[in-house]
């Protein structure tokens, strides 16, 4: 190793002496709790502040799953054609009893139910407008056209169409007939605001930062609105728990929010895949490490090794600069690596406990708590919570879900509830659904059934 500094090295070092590390180091718990987006922001900020830290080039890796690109194509994400994708979904058996014709029946039922209500509030001469609007609802309950287009097609005044649409929105599930996801959320939010139960931060997020919300840019939203990160998380939780991006929930919650973000995918933090030699076994990969790999700058590392030698050519200030920045860089990279090790440990345990779910779908989701995982891995429960909060997992089928889904056994109840309703000969009341669930081994209160039914966009028995 060259023990002497050349003039260029001295010049570069002098230019960086004014870059002092922050007196408050970023802690491991802070790093662990960050979403992928916020972690990348933190990494970029740290690299900007610390010349001893640098990012290893990852341009040859897929930014979604982390796989090495082959001729600019990802074998995992781009390698499935439409037929292969459908076969992959079928092979995972996520809903082996699903009958695609139930979607048609469900949509017709909604249209009929809406018309049955609309004829009670509209003049007879507007029935044809209502019928056209009901027929223009897409599978999620959004209006797949504009009032101007409807007016032009039917040869009526646009204000007349808007009046009929307003009545349709009043009689249907909250948000039905909305012309966009944003309008759908706005319609629902107004109801909660009237009840005085909506956090004030929800409206500006929906109106101005809906895309950022879908992308998980919570830190960015907090900065733009001048509020604490925790306030954004509170608003996000309210939106997730009380608002639906689509009036009729025919696809998973994750698919809803993926569409809201207007991006082609949600980049997972963890990929669960079947092993090549045994499809009954699964392996866990923390793919965020492939997107952002860090190292201590080689030049700074060499200078740090020279400190303490009698003729290193470094002044006291230069030595302090090198020590502090290299120490901080090593600490930061250590926290990042520990974050990934912790996430892999937690994910591996979850996979071992939820193999039936991975093979057969949501009905096989086993009850699992973060406390159980913490106890099994000798971790604090808060560590498990941070390791899973705002993180996403890619399933063997290619579907990306929030990590937290593994800890929500209620989803299994919802899946069974949906199946019961899809197979009913005559519409079952909520009380009858409670009894059906009890026979299936689920103890659920009637109001809970009603809540789950509303969350899934399923009409009450009187309208089904």
Q: In terms of topology, how is this protein built?
A:
Elements: H1 7-16, H2 28-33, H3 36-49, E1 53-56, H4 82-92, H5 101-118, H6 127-135, H7 147-154, H8 158-171, H9 181-194, H10 202-208, H11 210-214, H12 218-225, H13 229-242, H14 253-260, E2 270-274, E3 282-286, H15 288-291, E4 293-296, H16 298-306, H17 316-353, H18 355-360, H19 370-377, H20 381-388, E5 392-394, E6 400-402, H21 410-423, H22 430-439, H23 446-455
Helix pairs in contact: 5-6, 6-8, 7-8, 9-10, 12-13, 16-17, 17-19, 17-20, 19-20, 22-23
Short descriptors:
55% helix, elongated, disordered N terminus, mainly alpha
- Secondary-structure element sequence? HHHEHHHHHHHHHHHEEHEHHHHHEEHHH
Mean pLDDT rating: 76
Per DSSP, the total helix count is 23
E-strand count: 6
Domains (count): 3
- Give the spatial strand order of the biggest sheet: 3-2-5-6
Radius of gyration: 27 Å
Biggest β-sheet description: 4 strands, mixed
The amount of helix comes to 40-55%
Distance between the termini: 78 Å
The coarse silhouette is elongated
| Relative strand content | 5-15%
What structural class results from the helix and strand content? mainly alpha
**Uncertain runs:** 1-11, 13-24, 78-108, 250-265
